[in-house]
Amino acid sequence: MTNEEKKSLYECVKRQFTDPGLYKVSRVCEWLVTNGCSPEQMGYGSFRELAEDFPEMFAFQDDNNNEFIQIKAWQAGERDISDSTGHPADSFFGSRNIILNDDIIEMTQQSLFALTKVLGNGLSVQQMKQEIYRRFDEAKQNQKLDFLADRYTFPIDYCADGMLVNGIVTKNISPIGKSLYFAFEKTQICRQGAPERRSVGMISEEEKNRIYRMLCDNFPTDQPIHMATISKFLTDRGVDRMKYGFCKMKDFLAQMPFLVMRDIVLGGVPQVMITIEGVEVKSDYHASREYLQTRSVSPAQRNVFAERFPNQETYRATAPVPDGRLSDICNMPVKPMGILERYIEESGRKTDYFTLVDELNEDFRAARENNLVRVSDAKLVFPVRYLKKDGTHVELTLKLSAYEGKEWFLFFVDTNVRDKNQRIISPGKQLENFAFLGSWSNFLSELAAKAVDEEWDFRGSPKGHYRILIQYVKYTFSRLMREKKVCISEQFAAFNTGLADNHYDDIYACFFPNEPSCDTDWKFAGFCTAASGGLGKQLVNCFNPLPAPPTYFSSNEDLFFDQTKQLHTDFEHIIIDNIKRLPLQFLYDQFFGNEEARELVESIRAKSADRAAREELYDKLKQVIIDNSRLFVRIQNRLKDAIELAKKRVRWNYKTAIPSYFPKRDTMSLMLPLALVDEQKPDVALVVELTNSGSYQGQTILTLTQAYIDARLVCRLTGDWLDPSKISEPHLDADEQTEDFPLY
What mean pLDDT comes out for the span 118-146? Predict the structure, then answer.
C-alpha cells in the first residue's frame, strides 16, 4: 500500500471513527465498503490482510476472536480535512442502489418519536426505524425513490387525515456523527377516501371555549409558555389542527382570541411564546359545570357514594377542605392526567379529557360532602370512582401550588395495589416494623453462625459487619410479606429465612408476642430448624405446612438470557443520571482531549470523603458531557462494545447472566457484566429487563456491590464475576446506603 493510499484510507476511516479506540470489525468493514474502500477494491483478499499491511493505524486484538480492532492515530495521515470540499457520503450519495443502515444514517430519537405521533401507528422508536428502512427499500424496488440535487425523498405512509408523509435523507452537515441524516415532511398529497378537510376558520365559539377551559385547567394564565408545550398538550388531547383546515399549529392557535403570541430568540433559536389571557367564557360547556358546583348532595346520593366507596373510612379533616369545583381550584398538569387517562383506558373503558374532568369534579364534591378528603401536611387526598386491580379505589393527591393562580395542583395519582398484610413502608423497613429484633449485630451474628458458612462482607469491610446479610434478611422478609408466607398464630410467628444449616435444613426466624405498650406486635425469639429444640418443636406444633421460603421465578425467561432477542439500552440514563456508578478511571480514559473533564475527574478523586463537594463536581461533569456530544458518543460507543463482549460471555457460559430481584418494583431482571477498564475484570453490572414486546431493555447499571446484594436475594452465587471476596465496597452516598440498597 502506497503512502497516498494509506492517507486516503486513513481519512475515510477517521470521518466515521473519529477517536482512537476499539471498534467492531464488522462496523469498520461496512463503512469501508459503503465508501468505496473495500479490501477487494484495494487489492486485498480480506480485511485482515489490509489491516496487517497498515499497522500504523490498525491492530487486531487477539484475545477477542478478532471481533474488535484497534484504530490508532496516525500522524503521517493527518490533514486538515475541514478544508476539503468533500463529504463522507460523496462516493455513494445520489446512487439509486444506496443501502441504509445504522452505521451511515443518523435518526434521532426525537424525530422517530415525532413521526410515530404524526402517523399514529403506535410503533415504538425502534420499530419505526425498521419501518423506515423497509419503506426506503420498497421505494427503490417500485421506482418511487426520488433524488433531487441534495436529497432522497420516499413515501412512508399516510396519517389519519389522509395526507402523505415523505421521508427525507440528506447529507449530515454536522462535523461529527454519521454521513447521512433522516427527516420527514407532511405533504399536501391526499389519498382517496381520506377524511374531508374543513375550510380554514370553521372553529365554533363553543369549541374555542372548550379549548380555553382545557388550557386553563392545566396551565397558569398570564404567564408565557412555549408553543411546543401547548401544541403537544392539545395534540395529545385529540385536538387536531388539520380537522379545522390548518396545516400549521401556529396558524390554528392564532385563531384563539384568548392566546397572545410573541416571537422571541433564545440561544440563537427563534421560538414562539404563548400567554393565556384570563377571560370570561360563557357556554353550555360551562353551564354543565355550574350545575355540578351548585347542586346539593341528597341523603340518597350519600348512600350511593358510600356504596361506591365501601372501604373508605369517614375522615374529619383538621383543616377546611376548599369549596368549589376541583378544576376551578386545582391545576391539572399533563403528566398525572395522562397517567390517569391511560390507566382508565387500560382497564377497558374509553374516556376523553372533558368527561374525565367532569367525573373528577363530581367525585371531589362527593368526597368533600362525605368527609372522605384527608388533609395533612399541605396535601389533600381523596378517592375517585375508578378501581384498582384489588377492588379498592384510585386516590388523587393535591398539593399547595407555589405559583400564582389556582391554589392547588394535582400531584399524584395512586393506582398501586398494596398488600393488605403489608404496611405502607419501604421494603427495607418492614422487618423492623414487624418485630423488635434487639441488637442487629446479635441478630445477624446468630443467624450467620447457624447457617452454612458464607461470605457476608465485601473485601476490605470490617469482619462481622454483615453488610450483605442485613440486606438479605430485610428484603427476604419483604418478599415473604408480599407472598403472604409469614406465618402468624395467636402466640407464635415465624418465617423461613431462605438459608440452611450445615445439614441443609431450613432455618426459621421465630417470634413471640410483644408487650402491649410496645411499638411492634412481635419480638424476636430466636432461630431454629424444624422439630429441633424448644422453638423448633413449637414451630411444628403451630404451623402445618411449615413456613415456605420465598420464590422469585415464574418462568425460564427469569433465569436465562435469550440471545435471539434484541437488547435496547437507555444510555442517557446510564451516562448522565448514573455517572457516579461508572469507574473514574474509565471516565478519565474517555475524556482524552478534554482537559476540563479530566480535571473534574481528578478533583472527584481528591474529594472522595467530601460528599457535598463530590456532588457538585459530578453535576459539573454531567453538564460537560451534555454540552459535548462527542464525549457522550465516545462513552456510549465504549459501553456498546462492553455490552457486546458481555453477550459473548453469556453465549460461552449462560450462567454469566445472573438473575436478580428488585423489591420496590417487585420485578425480576438479569445482570450482565460490563468490563470498562480491563476486559478481564467487570466494573459494573447492566440490569436487563424483559419487556412486554419480547425485547430486552437495558434499564441501568449497578456497582458490583449493589449487583451482588440484588442477586444474593435470589440464590447463593458460586463465583464467575460476582464474588464478594473480590469486590471492594466503594464509598457510597447516604441515599445509596442501608435502607433501600438494591437500586435501579
Answer: 85
Residue 451 carries which side chain, given as an amino acid letter?
A
The CA-CA-CA angle for residues 614, 618, 622, to 5°, reads: 175
Q: Are 413 and 346 in contact (CB under 8 A)?
A: no
Q: Is 439 left (phi over 0), alpha (psi -120 to 50) or beta?
A: beta
- As a CATH number, domain 205-276 is 3.30.420
Question: Would the pTM count as exceeding 0.70?
Answer: no
Q: What is the spatial distance between Cα 464 and Cα 716, in angstroms, rounded to a whole number?
A: 19
Residues 710/742, Cβ–Cβ less than 8 Å: yes
Cα separation, 717 vs 613, whole angstroms:
36
Q: What is the pLDDT of residues 522-537, one digit of tens each?
A: 999 999 999 999 999 9
Among 417-431, 441-455, 458-472, the least confident range: 417-431
H/E run at residue 542:
helix 533-542
pLDDT tops 90 at residue 328: no
CA distance linking residue 53 with residue 63, whole number of Å: 20
Strands (E) in 402-544, as ranges, are 408-414, 435-436, 487-488, 493-500, 506-513, 522-528
The beta strands (E) that lie in 36-112 are given as 58-60, 68-71, 105-106
Evaluated on CA atoms 281, 284, 285, 288, the torsion sign reads positive
| 3-class state of residue 464 by DSSP | coil
Q: What is the mean pLDDT of the chain?
A: 80
User: Is the pLDDT higher at 470 or at 287?
Assistant: 470
| pLDDT number for residue 739 | 38
Amino acid at 315: Y
Burial 681-719 (b: 16+ CB within 10 A, else e): ebbbbbbbbbeeeeebbbbbbbbbbbbbbbbbbbeebee
Please tell me the predicted confidence (pLDDT) of residue 106.
83
Tally of residues, the chain: 744
CA distance 386 to 389: 10
